[in-house]
Amino acid sequence: MCGRFLLDADCEVLIERYDIFVDIETALEGMESLCDKRDEVFPGTEILVINSLKQAIWLTWGLKGLYGRTLINARVETFFKSQEYQRLEPCLVPATGYYEWERRHKGKCKIESANGMMTFAGLWNPETQTVCILTMPASDELAWVHDRMPVILEPNDFESWFDGLRRKVLLNEIIKRKTPDLSVENLEPTMQLSLFD
After folding, report:
1. Is the four-CA dihedral 34, 35, 38, 44 of positive or negative sign?
2. Percent of the chain with pLDDT over 90
3. pLDDT surpasses 90 at 6
4. Dihedral through CA 41, CA 44, CA 45, CA 50, nearest 10?
5. In terms of DSSP H, where are the helices of 111-193?
6. What's the confidence (pLDDT) of residue 171?
7. For 21, which DSSP code?
8. DSSP secondary structure letters along 130-157
9. What angle do the packed helices 27-34 and 11-18 form, to 10 degrees?
10. SS3 16
11. How many angstroms separate the CA atoms of 26 and 169, rounded?
12. What span, in angstroms and rounded, lies between the C-alpha atoms of 52 and 159?
């Protein structure tokens, strides 16, 4: 599961990592948006994503238009079986870490990448301008925190994620792949996870 994440990267880092196309006419507004660092991003708010055209766009986190409910996460197992999910548009969700609540002690943990950036596999609905994050079973290294984790894409995965013919093969590879170099920091314990602030 991924119910909160953070994004505090510099806009130059985001543009370089995702090769973001910046329209000259809207460059100033776009740069200001990219520079909006956030220590804790909540479902129901607008988040930065990168679409297949390498454009940085803002979508509401909480997919609408499927099954009559709002989905902040989608299981990769369901994606494999669901034609509805497969008709959604793929996107990249930039992050510098995410939060999880360790179930046994209800402690809040911050999970970050050693290289400072991570990219979640996202699915978005152009009609509702909403997005969800794909999740998979947690790796052995993270299973003590939670039994689910976001699908994390490496830069050399981006092209395959946007390619409908290679997407399923890529996801199967990621599930079997060794977990990226992640660190877990225990934060103050909390008694309850509230999905919406």
Report:
1. negative
2. 52
3. yes
4. 80
5. 158-162, 167-176
6. 95
7. B
8. EEEEEEEEPPTTTTTT-SEEEPEEPGGG
9. 100
10. helix
11. 37
12. 9
Place of tokens 């152009």: 126
Residue 40: partners with Cβ closer than 8 Å, 6 or more residues away: 4, 5, 6, 99
Quick: pLDDT tens for 58-114: 999 999 978 788 999 999 999 998 888 888 999 999 999 999 988 766 688 899 988
d(CA 137, CA 150): 9
Cβ-count burial of 15 within 10 angstroms (0-12 exposed, 13-18 middle, 19+ buried)?
middle
What's the DSSP call for residue 55?
A: B
- Pairwise CA distance, residues 72 & 89, whole Å: 15
Query: Residue written as tokens 């992640």?
Result: 182
Which domains are present in the chain? 4-189 (3.90.1680.10)
pLDDT tens per residue, range 181-191: 888 887 765 44
Please, which pLDDT band fits residue 116 given cuts at 50, 70 and 90?
Answer: confident
